[in-house]
Amino acid sequence: xxxxxxVIANLGYASRRGAEELIKNGKVLINDEVAxxxxxxxxxxxxxxxxxxxxxxxxxxxxxxxxNKPRFVVTTSKDELGRKTxxxxxxxxxxxxxxxRLDYDTTGVLLLTNDGELTNKLIxxxxxxxxxxxxxxxxxxxxxxxxxxxxxxxxxxxKTSPCRVKLKSFDKKTNTSMVELTxxxxxxxxxxxxxxxxxxDVIKLTRIRxxxxxxxSLKSGEYRKLTPKEVKRLYNLGEDDA
Length: 242
Ligand code: URA
Fold this sequence. Notes:
This protein is an alpha+beta fold.
């Protein structure tokens, strides 16, 4: 028999403290009864977190992190130039890697994991995973240019797919606009190149959402593990709640 928080942590579903929080918040069930801190379980007990049964038979060695990527960090596992990478920011012994890419100077939502199956699913174009970006651009963007972005512009000789574009604000004094773009493609430097195609420079770029994940609760450089429910939702994308 082992304490339930230890079982949850050992299987990689949360840190020990995270597991305690889940229990305190009533999110953990043992055989469909709400668990209390210190409850002991055996291998035959069914543990659920957020309604999802945890798999105790095969060791769950998959880990999932949500990072609020700061500027000037590279989105790779190892950088030839010795620059700091997103993986360096996360205290994890397992070999994790980023899901997709953000530029060196782009900030915001980035997922890291060692789950290849989920990664393939999230980056496969057919699943049309939404990414929302907030771009600060030079100039006051015209309505006609917003429509061009919405309908698709030529990037590397290929038209981008229709996307959603919202002018969030503009500032005549600094001659800048804040524009939100929701895209589902993931081409290299796509957002910057879309603006370049209509002759605007991007001054700052941040990803504010990836699929259903945002990092409003995380300061720049902070990260957290995904909950089992969040992982499940990502797996379900393209099926019941894309
Ligand atoms: N588009 C870009 O131009 N850069 C990013 O980092 C992400 C999307």
